[in-house]
Design goal:
CATH superfamily: MFS general substrate transporter like domains
Shape: globular
Number of domains: 1
Radius of gyration: 22 Å
CATH class: Mainly Alpha
Membrane topology: Multi-pass membrane protein
Oligomer: single chain
CATH architecture: Up-down Bundle
Order of helices and strands: HHHHHHHHHHHHHHHHHHHHHHHH
Largest sheet: none
Keywords: Membrane, Transmembrane, Transmembrane helix, Transport
Protein name: MFS transporter
Distance between the termini: 39 Å
InterPro entries: AcetylCoA_trans_1-like (IPR024371), AmpG_permease/AT-1 (IPR004752), MFS_trans_sf (IPR036259)
Number of helices: 24
Helix content: over 70%
Pfam families: Acatn
C-alpha cells in the first residue's frame, strides 16, 4: 500500500501543476467572453426553434431556419477586418466585442416587437442580423483569447480553451434555461422573452468594459512575415489584410497538410450538428415539457459541461490533444445512440438525464480539444483571421449541412431512432481521419 501511494505522488504533482495553470485573472475574462459567445445561440437557436414549433411550423421549415447559422461558416470572409481595423474606443479586441454586443441588444429589442404568424420573414431577417453580429463578436473573442496566452504556453492554451468552453455552455445552457422556465411558469410570450435576452446581453457588456485589452504589436509581427514593396500603401494594406493571413497558413504547414487539418476540422462534428439542430423539436415531439427541457437539456447539461470542460483541459495538459479528440469522438457516437433509445422508450426523464450527462461530456471534451488544436495552428499576427477560417469549418456542419436535418427526419417519416443512429455513424469517418493524421497533430502540439 505504501509503495502504491508513493507511485501516486508524481501523478498528484502533475495534477496540482495543471490546476495551478487556471490561477490567472485572464481566464475570468475568457470565461465571461465565452458566455457572451454562447448566449446568442439561444436567441436564434433553441428559443427561436421552440417559438416556431409552438406556432405550428413543420420540422423541415424549422430546420431550414438554421440556414441563418451559415453566417458562422462564412465569418472568416470579414475576419481580416477585425484583425486590421481598430475601433476608436476600448482597443482592437474589446472595441469590436462591445460594438457587436450592443448590436445584439438592439436586435433583440426589435425581435420582441414581431410575431411569427404575421412577421415570419422579418423574424428570419432579424435572426440573420443577430447571427452576423454574433459571428463577428466571436472573431474578436477568439482573437482576444489567443492574444492573451503565449503560443509556447501549451498548458495555458488548453486551460484557456476549457474556460472558453465552460463559458460558452454557461451562456447557452445555464442562461438558456431561463426562457423555457418562463414559457412554462409565466404568461410571457416568446417575443416578450426577447426583452429579457436583451437585458442579459446588456449586463454581459459590463464584462467587456472591465477586461484588460491584450498588448500585441501586430505590425511588428507582420513585418517578420512580409516586407513592404514599392507598391502603394493601399495595395500593401489590402495584401496584408486579405491575402497574407490565409497564404501564411498554407505556406507554413504545406498545402497538403493544411488541407488535411481543415478537412478533419470540418468532419469532426457533423453528426453532433445534425442532432443539435433537431434536439428541441425532438424533445417536444417525444413529450418533454418546456420545464423538462430547461432542467435537463439546459441546466444539467450546463453543469456537466462545465465540469468536463475543466477536466478536459486537465486531460489535454496531461495526455495531449489527440487523445482528447479521439476519446470525445468515440463518446460522441455513443451519446447519439442514447438519443435513439429515448425515441424508443418515450419521455423518460431518468434516461434523458443519463443521455445529457454523456452528451455533455462529449461536447465539452471535443470542444476543449478542438479549440486548443485550432489555437495552436494560428499565427499571432493573424490570430482572429486564421482562427475564424478554421472555426468556421468546425461549425459548417452545424450551420450549413445540418440545416437539412429536418428534411432528413421527414424523409424517414419521423423515425427519430434511425435518424440518431445515422448521426452516430457520421462520426466514424472523422475518427478514421483523426487516426491517419495523429502524428502531425502530435508534432504541432510539441511545437
Amino acid at each position: 500500500m505504501a509503495q502504491y501511494a508513493f507511485e501516486l505522488l508524481p501523478r498528484a504533482e502533475v495534477l496540482l501543476t495543471a490546476l495551478k495553470t487556471f490561477n490567472d485573472k485572464r481566464y475570468l475574462s475568457i470565461f465571461l467572453f465565452g458566455i457572451s459567445s454562447g448566449f446568442p445561440w439561444i436567441m436564434i437557436g433553441s428559443v427561436l426553434s421552440a417559438w416556431l414549433k409552438d406556432e405550428g411550423l413543420s420540422r423541415s421549415a424549422i430546420g431550414l431556419f438554421g440556414i441563418i447559422f451559415a453566417t458562422y461558416s462564412f465569418n472568416f470572409l470579414w475576419s481580416p477586418l477585425v484583425d486590421k481595423v481598430k475601433p476608436p474606443f476600448l482597443g482592437q479586441r474589446k472595441g469590436w466585442i462591445f460594438a457587436m454586443q450592443l448590436c445584439i441588444v438592439l436586435l433583440c429589442l426589435g425581435m420582441s416587437q414581431l410575431t411569427a404568424t404575421y412577421d415570419l420573414y422579418y423574424v428570419a431577417f432579424v435572426g440573420l442580423l443577430i447571427a452576423i453580429a454574433s459571428a463577428t463578436q466571436d472573431i474578436a473573442i477568439d482573437g482576444f483569447r489567443i492574444d492573451c496566452i503565449d503560443k509556447d504556453d501549451k498548458d495555458g492554451l488548453s486551460a484557456a480553451s476549457s474556460m472558453a468552453t465552460a463559458g460558452w455552455w454557461t451562456g447557452y445552457g445555464g442562461l438558456g434555461a431561463i426562457p423555457f422556465f418562463l414559457a412554462d411558469l409565466t404568461a410571457w410570450s416568446w417575443p416578450d422573452i426577447y426583452l429579457l435576452l436583451a437585458a442579459i446581453m446588456a449586463l454581459l457588456m459590463c464584462a467587456t468594459l472591465i477586461a484588460n485589452e491584450p498588448l500585441i504589436d501586430r505590425e511588428a509581427l507582420l513585418q517578420k512575415i512580409t516586407h513592404k514593396t514599392n507598391s502603394s500603401p493601399v495595395v500593401y494594406w489590402v495584401r496584408t489584410t486579405l491575402v497574407t493571413p490565409f497564404s501564411e497558413f498554407f505556406s507554413r504547414n504545406g498545402v497538403k497538410l493544411a488541407a488535411s487539418f481543415l478537412l478533419f476540422i470540418f468532419l469532426f462534428k457533423i453528426g453532433e450538428a445534425f442532432l443539435g439542430r433537431m434536439s428541441i423539436v425532438f424533445y417536444k415531439e417525444i413529450g418533454f415539457s418546456n420545464s423538462d427541457i430547461a432542467t435537463y437539456s439546459k441546466l444539467l447539461n450546463w453543469w456537466v459541461t462545465i465540469i468536463f470542460s475543466l477536466l478536459g483541459g486537465l486531460v489535454n495538459i496531461r495526455y495531449g490533444i489527440y487523445r482528447g479528440l479521439m476519446t470525445a469522438g468515440v463518446a460522441m457516437a455513443a451519446s447519439n445512440l442514447l438519443f435513439a433509445l429515448i425515441a424508443q422508450t418515450g419521455p423518460s426523464t431518468s434516461l434523458l438525464a443519463v443521455t445529457v450527462i454523456v452528451d455533455g461530456f462529449t461536447g465539452a471534451w471535443s470542444t476543449v480539444a478542438m479549440v486548443a488544436f485550432i489555437s495552436l495552428l494560428c499565427n499571432r499576427a493573424f490570430s482572429a483571421t486564421q482562427y475564424a477560417l478554421m472555426a468556421s469549418l468546425s461549425v459548417a456542419g452545424r450551420t450549413l449541412v445540418a440545416s437539412s436535418s429536418g428534411v432528413v427526419v421527414d424523409s424517414l417519416h419521423g423515425d427519430w431512432s434511425l435518424f440518431f443512429i445515422l448521426t452516430a455513424a457520421m462520426v466514424i469517418p472523422s475518427l478514421c481521419f483523426l487516426y491517419a493524421i495523429r502524428h502531425h497533430i502530435n508534432r504541432v502540439e510539441r511545437g
